[in-house]
Amino acid sequence: MDNKVIGFGIVGTGAIAGIHAQAIAALKNAKLLGAYSLTKAKVDEFATQYNCRAYDSLDELLKTEGLDIVCICTPSGAHLEPALKAIAAGKHCLIEKPIEVTLEKTDQIIAAAKRKNVQVAVVFPTRFYQASQHLKKAIDSGRFDQLALASSYVKWSRTHEYYSSNPWRGTWKLDGGGALMNQAIHSVDMLQWCMGPVQSVMAMSGNVKHKNIEVEDTLVAVLKFANGAMGTIECSTAVYPGAYKKLEIMGSAGTVVMEDNDISQWQFEQQTEQDTKISEGPSEHLSKGGVADPKAISYSGHQKQMENMIEAIYNNGQLLIDAEEGRKSVEIVLAIYKSAQTGQLVKLPL
């Protein structure tokens, strides 16, 4: 890649766009060239804050000289159009989670990227933290022996003002769902990454606090994995004061518990010297994890994912979370919603 400067553009200038801008600024040999938003006042303010150009149209942004990667930061159900336009222009895309809110839209993005031979990555920064990497390595090396249980907890607090701040929040069309699709989908991705394919799901959902939104604010699901293990998901935006997200992976020979992006328990039947180092202390600083404030997250996971994407594009590296990988969590979420709505066991694939 030599000393090429990677040019980034951002589409959508809501809260998460600022995390992308901070991550780009922290990269070596990268520059945020410009941003586009449907709301001119917002993009103008964003461009001033992050020292880039404000564009009046997406087409104009895509014609920018030196533009390589486009970050799609629009509402979840509005990823398709800007992604297809960017791909048609030959640009690589980093799409905020979820990749889209339906499998049909997701598959359109995947097909378009294949036709144009461009890379599409989906933002799941949790995978890039040290704790997650240690956990995955332990699973892949067979240290758990038979995987038995996998549980994720995302018990967060969101105010009424959070949902009323934008008309698209809390809608099926543009949010794609509630606590599960928007907050817990990171944990859904971690569950399937660690445990493998989900075979079936059963779920219940409801609205405990936020009665005026279309989607759920609380959900519980039971999962059966293809490897015979079982799991649970508990998620909410209705609890006070909220807690760090937690992931528990347990097998016949070991247990690992992660809180936010740190390891709180690392215990195996057969211990090694490396186990002591891993369990001695936190692998990452707790970021407050978005428990009560969606903006209270670190940009470091996004930065690591961007570094992985650049490596995959220019140095023949492996893209850790491509569009097809991002599709998996969407399918699991949609299966869980189907079960919650019908009261029936839902088998995958859909």
UniProtKB/TrEMBL annotation:
Domain called Gfo/Idh/MocA-like oxidoreductase N-terminal: residue spans? 7-122
Location of the GFO/IDH/MocA-like oxidoreductase domain: 133-256
| SUPFAM superfamilies the record matches | Glyceraldehyde-3-phosphate dehydrogenase-like, C-terminal domain, NAD(P)-binding Rossmann-fold domains
Quick one: where's region Disordered?
273-292
A Pfam family hit:
GFO_IDH_MocA
Indicate, by first and last residue, each region the UniProt record lists as having compositional bias (Basic and acidic residues).
274-287
Q: Which GO terms describe its molecular function?
A: nucleotide binding
Q: What is this protein called?
A: Oxidoreductase domain protein
Annotated source species: Pedobacter heparinus (strain ATCC 13125 / DSM 2366 / CIP 104194 / JCM 7457 / NBRC 12017 / NCIMB 9290 / NRRL B-14731 / HIM 762-3)
